[in-house]
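Example record used in the benchmark description.
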Amino acid sequence: MQKMSLVALGRHHLAQAERASSGRSAETVFGGHEHQLRQTLIALRAGESLSEHENPGEATLQVLVGRVLLRSKTAEWNGSPGDLLTIPDAPHALDAVEDSVFLLTVVKIL
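Model output (structure tokens):
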């Protein structure tokens, strides 16, 4: 078993995102290419975005810090700390309304 603090890891990556020219920092905390389940902690500086992209499988986003806006062509969802958003099975994008940290969980379709 492995244990980690997502709060501490989020603080670390948010500090990195603030210094990065891209305004983002991320780390896979579980899974990877050899697993179906992948969990990635992502930090985005306020005003930064993840541009529109397809969903690689079933996915959720849990907001740990800040506020985000998840957008598809037909709807928008606001996310605040503690919110769990189900990512639509359609092209979507994400905007960081405030400095934000979230946990992206994806189950890849085989």
